[in-house]
Specification:
L,D-transpeptidase catalytic domain-like; disordered N terminus; alpha+beta; flat; Immunoglobulin-like; 2 domains
Length: 377
């Protein structure tokens, strides 16, 4: 009988605790820490009243977003790095889209899997000697984010967001939570982010770069079309989607710039032809595109994201020159490809215009048959 009374007492206490926590809204926050990494989390609430500093709600919120405080800091920070540490990561979603009203608070979480061989440490680990894994602003790098929220503990500064976890081992997944308030205008805002091991390196892999599109208020079809061309952080209304697409290649600077009307939407580093095998100068248009082109002559270079160029001064005929990604050979284990990567910004090609792998794919996605170009020095 006494045992039954104890069980009844414990169940009653548990129900009261659940009701109390739910009344301050922490249950919603806590649910975001499940193992479901298939999508980003969005909460948008109107007229949210922030709890006063030091209140129970504030304390519970901080605990919800900073879980698992270490009881043994020495054990948490104990770590022998591998002989050759590799910091690599892969986002589960590379582009996240959320919708919120004007002036509303929103929260979005992105997830980064540790695909390297080195352990990541968060700012809450207390491991002062270990470099911290954070989410940094990109395009342009280290810019001040328009969504910087100094009232949220995960924002380190205007360009950095802390990792929620204290420590993430290889094969595990890190969480980055962005909480802010939308602007008071209807538009689509794009933010680019990239992980950085502070003081060590940025994670440069394609899979470790992500963007967030925030649809605010009533967006127009023009906004939706324009956001497709946003290659850097900004808002859709800054671009006229009906502008003419134009590719400008400056041989002297080894740069390719893409314009949509009067707005520059891309700026790529290139490698043009050598002085012995120069890239032809002149204007023209793109007359063909191929996912992969293989040259007819030995050693049969493979050139992804190929654009065939026809020059006006040659009667609009294709002369064998093109824009393409870094070339590679079928069986050289990437040696030639890496050599080409190291030569971006130099005149090293046989006359084509080479572009980095991510930039060439980006160019391929936005150009069309008939897109005009100009190559000059």
């Amino acid at each position: 009988m006494q045992r039954h009374k104890k069980i009844h007492f414990l169940l009653t206490a548990l129900l009261i605790a659940v009701f109390t926590i739910g009344s301050v809204g922490v249950g919603i926050l806590a649910s975001n820490f499940t193992n479901d990494l298939s999508a980003s989390v969005l909460t948008a609430k109107k007229k949210i009243k922030k709890p006063k500093r030091g209140s129970a709600a504030k304390m519970l919120k901080d605990l919800a977003i900073m879980p698992d405080i270490a009881t043994d800091p020495a054990a948490l920070c104990a770590y022998t790095p591998p002989e050759k540490p590799e910091y690599k990561g892969e986002f589960t979603l590379k582009n996240t889209k959320i919708t919120a009203g004007k002036g509303e608070e929103f929260t979005v979480s992105v997830y980064l899997k540790n695909t390297g061989n080195a352990t990541w440490f968060g700012d809450r680990s207390g491991c002062d000697a270990a470099p911290k894994m954070r989410l940094g602003t990109e395009r342009q790098r280290d810019r001040n984010s328009i969504f910087f929220n100094p009232g949220e503990p995960l924002w380190i500064n205007q360009s950095r967001i802390a990792m929620i976890e204290q420590r993430v081992e290889p094969g595990e997944t890190a969480t980055f939570r962005i909480t802010s308030r939308t602007p008071s205008v209807s538009d689509i805002f794009r933010e680019y982010f990239q992980p950085v091991v502070e003081g060590v390196k940025w994670l440069e892999e394609k899979e470790a770069k992500a963007s967030i599109d925030i649809y605010v208020g009533e967006t127009t079809s023009e906004n939706v079309r324009a956001v497709f061309y946003l290659g850097k952080t900004g808002q859709a209304s800054s671009i006229n989607p009906d502008g003419e697409l134009f590719v400008d290649v400056d041989i002297s600077e080894q740069r390719m710039r893409v314009f949509l009307g009067d707005t520059m939407i891309r700026d790529f580093l290139i490698s043009s032809g050598t002085f012995q095998t120069p890239t032809p100068l002149g204007s023209g248009k793109i007359v063909d595109k191929q996912d992969l082109r293989i040259s007819n002559k030995y050693p049969h270079y493979r050139m992804p994201f190929w654009h065939s160029l026809a020059f006006d001064k040659h009667g609009g005929q294709f002369l064998g020159y093109g824009f393409h990604s870094l070339p590679y050979l079928a069986n050289d284990k990437g040696i030639f490809w890496n050599e080409a990567l190291n030569h971006l910004g130099q005149r090293v090609s046989h006359g084509c215009v080479r572009i980095g792998p991510e930039d060439s794919e980006d160019l391929y996605n936005i150009t069309q048959i008939g897109t005009k170009f100009l190559i000059h020095d």
